[in-house]
Write a structure and sequence with these properties.
Number of helices: 7
Strand order of the largest sheet: 1-3-2
Radius of gyration: 17 Å
Distance between the termini: 26 Å
Structural class: mainly alpha
Strand content: 5-15%
Largest sheet: 3 strands, antiparallel
């Protein structure tokens, strides 16, 4: 399985994940490749290449209906990000240790990324709970 940080480092893949999250929040059960292409304004081969990476990292799942494929988010791999970030987001004495070993900009970046990842994970899990059959 690819390193989750390498996967989400790409801006187009983050855009796809955000689009899929938005669609889940709108109550959609999946998003077609053509919808992603249209919304992001990138080519179909580019979207397919990025969806393959997201599938291999298990950040998305695919459902086939006839000739169409519908992509949905999978929250589980985001736990790896949480596990890595938690030590940087502690409280009390742990904060002092993290701040003493990281530069100010690195500590700030870790905090921002951690909060964004936690927020995205929470939003995704909340949206998935709203889907029928869950």
């Amino acid at each position: 399985m690819p390193d989750i940080f390498d996967v989400i480092a790409d801006g187009t893949r983050r855009d796809i994940l955000r689009l899929l999250l938005d669609r889940v929040n709108e109550g959609e059960r999946g998003t077609s490749v053509s919808h992603i292409v249209h919304e992001l304004g990138v080519s179909q081969p580019t979207v397919s290449k990025h969806l393959k990476v997201l599938r291999e990292s298990q950040l998305v799942s695919v459902r086939e209906e006839g000739q169409h494929r519908y992509y949905s988010l999978s929250a589980a791999p985001l736990d790896q990000i949480d596990d890595w970030l938690v030590p940087f987001l502690g409280s009390g004495e742990d904060d002092l240790v993290a701040e003493s070993t990281l530069t100010d900009s690195a500590a700030h970046a870790a905090e921002v990324v951690g909060r964004a990842a936690a927020s995205a994970k929470h939003a995704l899990e909340s949206a998935l709970k709203k889907l029928p059959g869950r």
